[in-house]
């Protein structure tokens, strides 16, 4: 994915809202890139632009060498929203299979894919349950499984764990790193949490208040295998400090 001087302005009744300005970024295949910044800084808008859910008003954006709309039609990515968005009248397996049904996969192929992704997110045996029978963390794992079902190269995740308590969030952070190691997907991940961004990412993109600009891109020096207690190490703390300084610098620029 490559962004070159991307601007995005929304026209509203109260005048234009400048969501993104001059965003330059390349995300390489197999990377785990987190976006962090204050509320309203454009990080979700940028993720939505990658997914062709918003259209830049300046610059260029390509996904796997295609326009975002071409990438959407080529099923190049799966998208995980903040809320699981599961249909309560469909089983977990039925929810995961829904995009596959829409795409015209055969019944046998759907069944095989659903079973495979349930295993990847550690929900074996829960396919016949309904969303209301699962905890919030399990519902979010089902949402991730749905995004993985058609085996896209890219996984876009918009604060998927933001509404969960810290214990569940830690568990899902570990599970997501394990999933990334198993699948080799390219992941774009939006978060408000500095520890989450540092724990998960190969690179952390720090964004300024609106209009959203990139103030820092931090390469992680942490090993790929990361137990939770790595968060107590001096190396982790140093990266978190740099993220925090980047966020402060963005606010200083705004002032």
Automatic annotation (TrEMBL):
Keywords: ATP-binding, Nucleotide-binding, Transport. Pfam families: ABC_tran (PF00005). It comes from the Bacteria. InterPro entries: AAA+_ATPase, ABC_transporter-like_ATP-bd, ABC_transporter-like_CS, ABC_transporter_ATP-bind, P-loop_NTPase. SUPFAM superfamilies: P-loop containing nucleoside triphosphate hydrolases. GO terms for molecular function: ATP binding. Residues 3-234 form the ABC transporter domain. Belongs to the ABC transporter superfamily. This is ABC transporter ATP-binding protein.
